[in-house]
Amino acid sequence: MHLHHGTDEFQGYRLRSARTRKRWAKTDREKQLIALDKLQNELWRQWSDRPFLPLETPYQSGWIRTYVLREDVQKSKHAAFFSSILSRINNVQFNRDKDFRAKKRNRRRKTYSIAQPLREIDEYGWKSGKCKLTDLQKQFFYPRTSWCTRKRRFVTHYVFSEPWRFVLVVQPRMITQVQLADPVLESKKQLVDNHIRNYDLRQKLNKLTKGKKRTYSRCGKPPVIDPYKNRSFSDRLQAYLTEA
């Protein structure tokens, strides 16, 4: 009786096929990668949330160049209005030299001034309200369409129409506080970052956590759906003859 009972258990036991084992192994690996991505994000959050400690003796580290209101605009009654616009489109740069010049790559003796235009607002930020501009402030912007080499399509940005209201000023960059050091947290973060970089896991992690790439803009039209998709050739031909 005992042998017969064991045979029934053996027959009722469901063996895993090779395909099932492969699928389960892939699922387990993806779960491990998702957990690794969450761990990296958590370590980076803890690293950025470290408290700041004020320095007893502040020191200078390079120079900062930023836009401010022109003197006559600052004294006018519209100073608060344009100051609010400037807070959305200001462009801040840092440099170790006060003249903000860089050497050319091919000719080391030749230098050129580093350009610093006002920040432009992309179409997504403009339509979604992420730019946080009022309707009256938006009247001081105009759209400009140009070809984007990286996206390989035309993109639209909104540019401030009166940049003369702002001027560039150069100020010393003073360091008055530093973040508290945490060697243990830094070691953990570096260990996870090195593992992802050495095993080239970033692309796989992005695919698992952020999904596939979109080939269309979030602000543009949705992709066109083919009404004849997954239909036979005879149905397509009949629809074409009917429309003709």
How would you explain this protein's 3D organization?
With 244 residues, this protein is an alpha+beta fold. It has 2 domains: 22-51 and 180-221, no CATH class; 53-177, no CATH class. It is built from 9 helices and 8 strands. It has helices spanning 2-12, 18-48, 71-75, 79-89, 123-128, 135-138, 183-198, 202-210, 233-243, and strands spanning 52-69, 93-95, 101-103, 111-113, 121-122, 141-148, 153-160, 166-179. Strands 2-1-8 form a 3-stranded antiparallel sheet. α2 (18-48) packs antiparallel against α7 (183-198). The longest helix has 31 residues, at 18-48. The radius of gyration is 30 Å and the shape is extended.
List how many beta strands DSSP finds: 8
Q: List the domain count as a whole number.
A: 2
Query: How does the overall form come out from the CA principal axes?
Result: extended
> Can you tell me the residue ranges where pLDDT is under 50 for at least 5 consecutive residues?
none
Task: State mean pLDDT (0 to 100 scale).
Answer: 86
Contiguous helical run count: 9
Helix content: 40-55%
Report the end-to-end length measured between terminal Cα atoms: 78 Å
Sheet-strand content, in percent, reads: 15-25%
How large is the radius of gyration? 30 Å
Succession of helices and strands: HHEHHEEEEHHEEEHHH
For the largest sheet, list the strands in their spatial order. Answer: 2-1-8
How would a crystallographer describe the biggest sheet?
3 strands, antiparallel
Structural class: alpha+beta
